[in-house]
Amino acid sequence: MKVGIINYGMGNLASVQNALNFLNVESEIIDTINTEKQFDKYILPGVGAFAQAIQNLKDRNLIESIRKIALNDNKPLLGLCLGMQLLFDTSEENGNNIGLELIPGKVISIKEHTNNLVVPHVGWNELKIERNHRFLDGIPEKENDVYFVHSYYCEAQNNSDVLASCEYGVKMDVVVQKNTIFGCQFHPEKSQKIGLKLLQNFCEI
After folding, report:
1. Which active-site residues does the annotation give?
2. Is the pLDDT of residue 6 over 90?
3. Which of 56, 69, 146, 153 is the most exposed place for a label (fewest CB within 10 A)?
4. 110/140 Cα distance (integer angstroms)
5. Pairing mode, if any, of strands 103-109 and 152-156?
6. Nearest alpha-carbon partner for 109 in 158, 45, 46, 155
């Protein structure tokens, strides 16, 4: 089993690959998605602004390739932090931007929907499990804090796509799943035992 880590110029690629190495999962950082070079699963990491990320994906001809592996090939795809936000339909960050349109919903500002809270949301926060799924196998319902760094959050259109949420002045959808498409708003590669378990679960799906 081999995981392709998609490089579009805005991800902490080394941290993700180091976490996979720790789990003894073979991976490769890739700049293009070539169907002739087979990967079993893909990870879309991300740090930064939504609009720039979408532009980078366009410039590297990755948008249709990502949609194809997720929708046509049914290859498991995991978006991390900004990578999760990119899975959604739209984001209001720096104007209205169209995402990959893989998970129905939108990305909205924490600051615009909370009062007197520090933004960006940086630090540890507890997950609230919304429904069971193999992706969450072994994740306890309490003492399951994970590490966040973000100023915008996802609001899924369908509750059935939400695996877990958290509270930071407002309820935020932070783990999503639709078919073989998954997303984590936080950084599992920086979330110690809980994060490593989630990555392991993804690799075993």
Report:
1. 81, 187, 189
2. yes
3. 56
4. 26
5. antiparallel
6. 155
**What pLDDT score does 35 carry?**
64
- What is the rounded distance in angstroms from the CA atom of residue 160 to the CA atom of residue 24? 32
Alpha-carbon distance 50 to 54, whole Å? Answer: 6
Cβ pair 34, 73 in contact under 8 A:
no
- DSSP states of 118-161: -SSEEEEE--EE-S--GGGTT--SSS--EEEEESEEEEES-GGG
Burial class (CB in 10 A: 0-12, 13-18, 19+), 193: exposed
pLDDT of 94 reads: 81
Query: 171-178 and 162-167 as β-strands: parallel, antiparallel, unpaired?
Result: antiparallel
Reported pTM: 0.96
Task: Give me the count of residues in the chain.
Answer: 205
Which tokens go with 42? 């893909």
CA distances to 20, 126, 137, 149 from 140, in Å: 21, 10, 9, 22
CA distance 124 to 147: 5
